[in-house]
Predict the structure.
Amino acid sequence: MQSDLNVDVLIVGAGAAGLTLAVDLARRGVTFRLIDGLDGPFQGSRGKGIQPRTLEVFEDLGVVDRIAAAGSLYPPQRVYGLDGGFEDTQEFSIAASTDSEPYRMPLLVPQFRTEAVLRDRIIELGGRVEYGVELVSFGDDGDAAVASIAGTDGIQTIRCRYLIGADGGRSFVRRALSVEFPGKTLGVRAIVADIEIDGLDRDVWHRFNAGDMARQISFCPLPHGDVFQLQAPIALGGEADLSVAGLQAFIDERLSMPAIRVRAVHWASAYVMNARLAEHYRVGNVFLIGDAAHIHPPTGGQGLNTSVQDAYNLGWKLAAVLAGAPPVLLDTYEEERRPVAAGMLGLAAGLLDKARHGDMRRGREVHQLDLGYRGSSLAPGMSERTNGIQPGDRMPDSVLRGAAGQPRRLYDLLAGPHWTLLVAGDAGDADVPPRAGVNVVTIDGDGQLRHDNGQLGLAKGERRLVRPDGYVGACFGPGETHAMTDYLSHVLPPYRS
Ligand SMILES: Cc1cc2nc3c(=O)[nH]c(=O)nc-3n(C[C@H](O)[C@H](O)[C@H](O)COP(=O)(O)OP(=O)(O)OC[C@H]3O[C@@H](n4cnc5c(N)ncnc54)[C@H](O)[C@@H]3O)c2cc1C
């Protein structure tokens, strides 16, 4: 048995949630180990919809363009009638960028590609995933979590400040903590499979027998290759044959289209849909993120996105507390993220009901741009001064003008691990001494940047604190400097001049 390895954070599970957290911690200089029991990267396409808010998160993490290059826009859906005729429709809300919302369309990116991009980013930042390493037991002595992990080198004991259960829907960490996972099984079992086939065009998402749960089947062309993702509900009981021959027989039984021939199966799974939410996201020094904390039906493409955003909410808080911020900051992770997941469960279950009747339309509600943390203890009070933007809201992007009159995006200024203090006016209006972890940006007046259309909604002397995860923390008027200093003392390490 090897002894103490001492690391700040042990992340158990290198799915979308664990990988995102690792990227965020790596860029903040937090030491971590990221382990996964699989022998190598997961190869399935399953969570393939990346929502606009997640694209904003990925922009901040430095990967959005790579994610876009790894995917595509959603193709139109071709819905076939019983007579063999079809109609092409775009079921996803796709709109052009605006100054305040740079991404207004979900992207289609197979999950294994999203995860590959995140893994590459971790390596760039000096970290790595340890595959073939499984968490087998853990405890918590109050000051730290102590974990036993098993790999080819045998059993190691790791003492870490925080242990993160990013270990998926069947989470070992959640069970070991005896955290309840109430909810329900939704009475739907389905196949999802990545297959190579002949006989279908690759420029549309083919949907057959929509609205008939016993016969529905769809084929979505995955970008950059010749693989389709097959999705279909199946009977609740019995074996599902996921071989080439088995899936060919399955397709033949549902469709009379002999031209469709299965050539290869890259990955396939049969699963039962559930909607469940963990009673707690934190027990002592152990946290649950992603599917370990909530599972949804795949309708609406919310699972992976919610998982990424759990990690994004927790990352900056872990780093701040490790650097000396008040530990109670970590309680706001469950406070803020659990209600979001509860809302997602209702949304995804509602969309599943619509899908049972053949209605696959998706609107802005799945984009996650309107989610926020109003009412959280980190979002005190409502302000009358803020042009509709309140504490807890996602800070919209905006186009400003720089020293040479050139366009400067607000999101470029927010990107990175810091807080941002937006000040309407000149440097004197900031009214706080510089401090580590807070970038001051002055706008209009004698400030650094110009803002032509007033979307920021700040009157002269007003200040808005934007959190590292892009949500408004608080708004302060002239003279409210004590309140601002007090707010910062709850979210940052102690002030050092
Ligand atoms: C069949 C299927 C289809 C889906 N389709 C969609 C979809 O269309 N859209 C969508 O948004 N979402 C979909 N989802 C959900 C989406 O894939 C998940 O929400 C997402 O993968 C959650 O990421 P995660 O990192 O929390 O968990 P996971 O991706 O499950 O990753 C957990 C990781 O933890 C590892 N692990 C587990 N136990 C241990 C241990 N003891 N030690 C070390 N490692 C461990 C596992 O090997 C795994 O790699 C689907 C899920 C499934 C199962």
About this structure: The pocket of flavin-adenine dinucleotide is lined by residues 12-18, 35-38, 42, 46-49, 111, 134-135, 166-168, 172, 192, 269, 271, 290-291, 298, 301-305, 307 (CB under 6 Å).
